[in-house]
Design goal:
- The chain has one domain.
- The longest helix has 73 residues.
- It has five helices and no strands.
- The chain is mostly helical.
- It starts with 7 loop residues before the first helix and ends with a helix.
- The protein is rod-shaped, with a radius of gyration of 33 Å.
Length: 138
């Protein structure tokens, strides 16, 4: 990015490790409606194949013990991935809050400076008005 300055968020995103990027991608994927729809479809197909094949050709007959094992492992992984991503989001929110605070402090200083200049200008105007009134009376 040569033609403009990078924002804080762009710099932060560029500094992410491969694991952090993977956690964000997985969080964004698992937290979406396409994932939910695909997951429900997968479970329905699994149940249909293993129910229609009956006990002879099915690899996981009813009550789908292998499917339950896969779902338990998926839930465990999802929990860990979501916690990793949430921890990163908390760090981002804290950094952005600090940036906002620093910006507000700087803006306050600049506003106070402008108010001081404005007060000086008002004092000068008042003095000029008094001078003009006194000369008009003389």
């Amino acid at each position: 990015m040569t033609d403009r300055q990078k924002t804080w968020h762009e710099k932060h995103t560029a500094s992410l490790s491969t694991g952090q990027r993977a956690a964000d991608l997985m969080r964004n994927g698992m937290g979406s409606w396409p994932f939910v729809g695909g997951f429900i479809g997968f479970m329905l197909i699994w149940a249909a194949i293993n129910t229609l094949a009956l006990a002879t050709n099915s690899w996981d007959p009813y009550p789908y013990i292998l499917l339950n094992l896969l779902l338990s492992m998926l839930a465990g992984l999802q929990g860990a991935i979501l916690l990793i991503a949430a921890k990163r989001q908390d760090a981002i929110a804290a950094a952005m809050a600090q940036h906002d605070y620093d910006t507000n402090v700087k803006a306050k200083e600049e506003i106070e400076l402008l108010m001081a200049i404005n007060s000086q200008q008002l004092e000068i105007l008042q003095e000029l008005k008094e001078l003009a009134t006194s000369k008009a009376l003389n």
